[in-house]
Automatic annotation (TrEMBL):
It comes from the Archaea. InterPro entries: Cupin_2 (IPR013096), RmlC-like_jellyroll (IPR014710), RmlC_Cupin_sf (IPR011051). It comes from Methanofollis liminatans DSM 4140. This is Cupin 2 conserved barrel domain protein. Residues 59-129 form the Cupin type-2 domain. Pfam families: Cupin_2.
C-alpha cells in the first residue's frame, strides 16, 4: 500500500491479484479516491473514501518458511500485512514482496491461483477482511 504523503492524500493504492478468462492470475494496482470530509464530528476533517461492503474479519498467521503452494483464494478478500515479510507469485511469473502496511485484494477465487511464501525470519500475520463483490 502506498504510504500517504502530503502530495497524495486524495488517493490510496493497493495491490490486486485477479484471474483472467484462461484461469491465469495477474497483479494489478488499484487506486481509491478520497476527499476531505467531516466524517467523525467534532473531530477535525480527514481524508475518507467511499464505503465498501464488509461484515467480518479474521487473522492469518504463517510460520517461518511457510509456503502456500499454487492455490486460488478461498474467497474475495483483503489481506493487510501486520507483521513479517511475504512474497506472492502469480501464474504469469510476476513476484511481489509485501511488508507491514501493504494491502492486497485477492480476487483469484477460480483458476490456478497464486503462491504465497513467508520469506521473513519470523511469523507473518495478516488481518483478513472478506470483501464480497458489490
Amino acid at each position: 500500500m502506498t504510504k500517504p504523503s502530503s502530495s497524495n492524500l486524495t488517493h490510496v493504492t493497493y495491490h490486486r491479484i485477479y484471474t483472467d478468462p484462461q484461469g491465469e492470475s495477474h497483479f494489478d494496482v488499484v487506486t481509491v479516491e478520497q476527499s476531505l470530509a467531516r466524517a467523525a464530528p467534532p473531530a477535525a476533517p480527514f481524508y475518507v473514501s467511499g464505503d465498501r461492503p464488509a461484515s467480518k474479519y479474521r487473522f492469518y498467521t504463517f510460520p517461518p518458511g511457510w509456503i502456500g503452494e499454487l492455490h486460488p483464494a478461498p474467497a474475495r478478500q483483503f489481506l493487510a500485512l501486520m507483521s513479517g515479510a511475504v512474497e506472492m507469485e502469480t501464474t504469469d511469473g510476476a513476484v511481489r514482496r509485501f511488508a507491514p502496511g501493504d494491502l492486497v485484494l485477492l480476487e483469484d477465487t477460480s483458476g490456478r491461483g497464486h503462491v504465497t511464501r513467508n520469506i521473513g525470519e519470523g511469523y507473518a500475520t495478516y488481518l483478513v477482511v472478506p470483501a464480497p463483490a458489490a
